[in-house]
Amino acid sequence: CMSSGNLINKKGYNKMVVNPLFVASLIFLPMSSAAFRLRCGLPAHTHHLMAFASSMTSPVRSHALQRHFAFQWHGHSRYISKACDKVNKVNRYDRFRACLRVAVSDNNFEATQRIHNTQVFSKDVADPLDVAKSTMEIMASNRRSFNRTWERMNPLIQLILLPSKSSRMKSVADVGCDHGMLALSLACIAWVNQSRDDSNEFLFSKVFGTDVSSPALENGGIASLKRVNDALSKIGTANDNKSLLELPIQFRIGDGLSALQPGEANAIVIAGMGVHTMLDILVGKSEATTTPIESLESEYVFLQPTNSRPQHLIILYDGLQKDLGWELCDEKVAFVGGRWYISSYFRRNDDDNRETISIYRFPGHYLLDNEIFDNYVRHHLEWLKQVVEKGPLAEEDTGWVKHILSLTNKNEWKMLAAWYNDEDTATE
Q: Other CB atoms closer than 10 Å to residue 60's CB: what's the count?
C-alpha cells in the first residue's frame, strides 16, 4: 500500500481498501496540533504514536515497526475510531435512506448499483433486520446507545419475523412503546412491504405503539416519528413517478391493552417491563371470565422481560402456558450491559384440551446449545448456590435446578449444580 508511491491524486485518496495501520498513520500525522487532539477527544499521551505514524511514511521502516504498533493499537483503538468518525463520518440518515431504497428496489439492478456508488450501504439486498437496524440508528442519541439497544432488540425482532414469513400476521402492537424505537423499526419494515412490487417477504402492514404516559409518548414515540418521516420524505423511490407511502403506524395512549380494539392487532409485543407487569397486562388483575389478551383476539405474543432470573421467567411461562393455554414456539437470548435478556415467542392454541399442549415451563428449551445461554445457566447456578447458603430457594428456582440436573448431555451443568440437596434447599 505505502510502497506504491501513488496513493493520492488530485481528487484525493483513490484506494478502495486499506489496512488499519495505514488509516492510523493518516489520522495521527496531524496530531501535533493540540487543538486537533482536543477536538477529537484524544489523550495528550499520543506523541509516541504520532512519531510512529510519521515513520510509517518510509516503506522500509514501516514493516519493522508493525509489531510495536500492534501493541499500541490495542490500547488506543477507541481513540483511533473516534478520530476516524470525526474525519470521515458517514451520515446515518443517508445510510437509512440507502437501506430502504435497496429494500424496496432490490430487484432493480440500476437502483441497487446507484446505491453502491454512494458507498453508504454496501449490501445487494436489504432484509428486514437491515431495515430495523438502520431505523434504530437514526433514533439513537449516540453510537453506544444504539449498539446496546440493537443488541437487545435484534433477537426480539428475529422472533417477530418468524410467523410473519409463514402466515398472514397483518398487524403488530408494541405495548409500552415509550420512545417508539421498536414500533418505528417495525413500521419501517411494514412501509417496505407496502412499497415493494412483490410483498411476499415483509408481510405485516400495520403497527401500533401504545403507552400509558402521554408525556412519554409525546416526547418519545411521536417525536421520533417526526424524525423518521423527515428522513423518509427525502428517500425517493426506484420509480421517480411513484409517490411515497405514509409510515403505517399509529401511536395511542392507554393502559395495557385498553388502547387496542378486538381484532386490531394480530401480534402483541412487550419489552422493557418486569414479568409481573407483563402478566398484569396480558392476564389482567381482576377475576373476569375473559382475560385482556383473549378479548383482543390476538394470535401471537412476543415478550422480553427485564428480569431474567429463572424464578421470574418460570412464573411468566406458567402464566401464558398453564393459565391461558398458549404455546411456546421459540426463544432467543442476548447478553447486553452485564444482563441477560431472554425473548420468547408464544402462539395462541385453540385446542380446548390444554393437556395436549407441550408445556416448557423452564426457560431455555430452545437455547440448550446456545453459548450465551450456557453462560446464563452457569452464572445462575453459581448465584443460586450463594442464595441457598443464606436461606431456602423459591419453589420455581428449586424446580429449575432439578430441571438442569435432569438434562442429558449437560454434565458440566450437573457438576455446577452438585451443591443441590433436595431436603435442604426447597422452601416449605
A: 8
d(CA 195, CA 267): 22
Beta bridge pairs of residue 331? 344
Match 488530485 to its residue by C-alpha cell.
10
* 57, 25 Cβ separation under 8 angstroms: yes
The answer to whether 109 touches 166, Cβ cutoff 8 Å, is no
Q: Residue 313: which of 221, 253, 229, 377 has the closest Cα?
A: 377
- pLDDT by residue (tens digit) across 320-342? 998 888 999 999 999 999 999 99
Closest CA to 293 of 173, 164, 159, 153: 173
Give the other-Cβ count within 10 Å of 79's Cβ: 19
How many angstroms separate the CA atoms of 302 and 124, rounded?
Answer: 30
pLDDT recorded at residue 233: 85
Q: Classify residue 69 by burial, with Cβ atoms within 10 Å: 0-12, 13-18, 19+.
A: buried
* 3 state DSSP class of 215: helix
Q: Is residue 350 classed as helix, strand or coil in its secondary structure?
A: coil
**Rounded CA gap, 99 and 231, in Å?**
12
